[in-house]
Specification:
This protein is α+β, with helices and mostly antiparallel strands. 34% of the residues lie in helices and 21% in strands. It folds into two domains: 2-201, no CATH class; 213-344, no CATH class. An eight-stranded mixed sheet has the order 3-2-6-7-8-9-1-10. Helix 6 packs antiparallel against helix 9 and helix 7 packs across helix 9 (289-308). 35% of the residues are buried. The structure holds iron/sulfur cluster (2 copies). One iron/sulfur cluster binds next to helix 10. This is 4Fe-4S ferredoxin-type domain-containing protein. One of its GO terms (molecular function) is metal ion binding.
Length: 345
């Protein structure tokens, strides 16, 4: 990995240089919260933010994606050419970069790449920034507290400087042209190590570190714990909407007025929706909320791991904030902790 050092005061120049070619999407403040939004000036950006309400996934996987257009009168189908912008996702935390890596595994797989996702991803630069964990963060337990691949630049804060990890030639050239770039010194590397250690020590110790989660998921598949969670779940889908790695979708045909022409669309869906597992004939093979919550947690902490060798949940903690009835992977970790304590008695 190539590292360079820039002053914090140089970041506005970097953003200005990026804005010459790209739409820049970055964390901005909205009242007490933060969201990703397009910005036109560096002063709108909040680089030291705890987390955003929702992840930046909508910029790669829009909530409504037209797949093709049709004309029933002419019996004709037209390929849809998406409007893909050159864009920079600026100030993305490591957990969200890992979340995008997980989406890449699904939608940018070499065997069956999704052309819509792939086009957005190819047009996007990612500039990450280091962070300090909030009380709901557990990316450290999901092996996502660092982004290894998946970014063009990563700004690691070391006091009034950034140690910049460089991930692409395109971004390196923009950085070099816009900023006073220096070689990293031993003092910078030592400062980086101290910052990393400070972050590691700041994670909420009340979120238990559980080993062998997939095995425990299998062992407690029939436990009444899932009924208890299902009894609470409101089926509101807030968890899926804010999650960087929820990618379930539905396909629908939308007709124009006159009902002759229209478009086929891919729209976000969620496995917590009551109708998500409804099939032809009206049978619903996950009709109970407990089955749906359990399915979501299994996919996050077990199923994806079996096929992609890493957990789908990146521990961003957003669902723990969004869920009004306190259902999240953190609850599952606490359940396993209780079970472990019972076994020890
Ligand atoms: S399941 Fe929750 S904590 Fe895990 S990645 Fe999704 S929103 Fe974040
Ligand atoms: S787990 Fe929580 S956020 Fe998700 S659907 Fe149920 S009530 Fe809504």
């Amino acid at each position: 990995m190539l590292y360079r050092v820039i002053d914090r005061a140089d970041v506005p120049s970097l953003v200005a240089a990026l804005m010459e070619r790209y739409e820049v999407v970055a964390p901005v403040r909205r009242g007490e919260k933060y969201v990703f939004a397009a910005v036109s000036d560096f002063d709108e950006i909040e680089l030291d933010y705890p987390s955003t309400v929702a992840s930046p996934k909508k910029y790669l996987m829009p909530a409504i994606q037209t797949l093709f257009e049709f004309d029933t009168a002419a019996n004709d189908v037209t390929d849809y050419v998406d409007e893909v912008r050159l864009r920079v996702l600026f100030g993305v935390h490591a957990c969200d970069i890992n979340g995008i890596m997980n989406l890449n595994s699904v939608f940018n797989d070499a065997r069956y790449p999704d052309p819509y996702y792939a086009a957005h991803r190819a047009a996007t630069l990612i500039v990450g920034v280091s962070c300090m964990p909030s009380e709901h963060c557990f990316c450290n337990l999901m092996d996502s507290e660092e982004a290894r691949p998946g970014y063009d630049l990563f700004l690691n804060a070391i006091g009034d400087k950034f140690l910049v990890s460089i991930g692409s030639v395109t971004a390196a050239n923009i950085l070099e042209a816009a900023c006073d770039v220096r070689e990293a010194t031993d003092a910078d590397r030592i400062a980086f190590r101290a910052a990393t250690r400070a972050r590691q020590e700041a994670f909420n110790p009340a979120i238990p570190d559980i080993q062998e989660i997939p095995m425990l998921m299998d062992a407690f598949h029939e436990d009444g714990f899932w009924d208890e969670l299902g009894g609470r779940c409101l089926s509101c889908n807030a968890c899926a909407n804010v999650c960087p790695t929820c990618y379930c979708f539905d396909i629908r045909d939308t007709l124009d007025p006159g009902a002759k022409t229209g478009r086929r669309e891919r729209v976000w869906d969620a496995c917590t929706s009551p109708q998500f597992a409804m099939v032809a004939g009206g049978h619903n093979f996950r009709s109970a909320p407990a089955q749906r919550v359990r399915h979501r947690m299994y996919h996050k902490l077990n199923g994806f791991l079996a096929t992609h060798d890493r957990s789908l949940c990146v521990g961003c903690g957003r669902c723990a904030v969004a869920c009004k009835v306190d259902i999240s992977p953190i609850e599952v970790l606490r359940f396993f902790e209780r079970k472990g304590a019972e076994d020890a008695e």
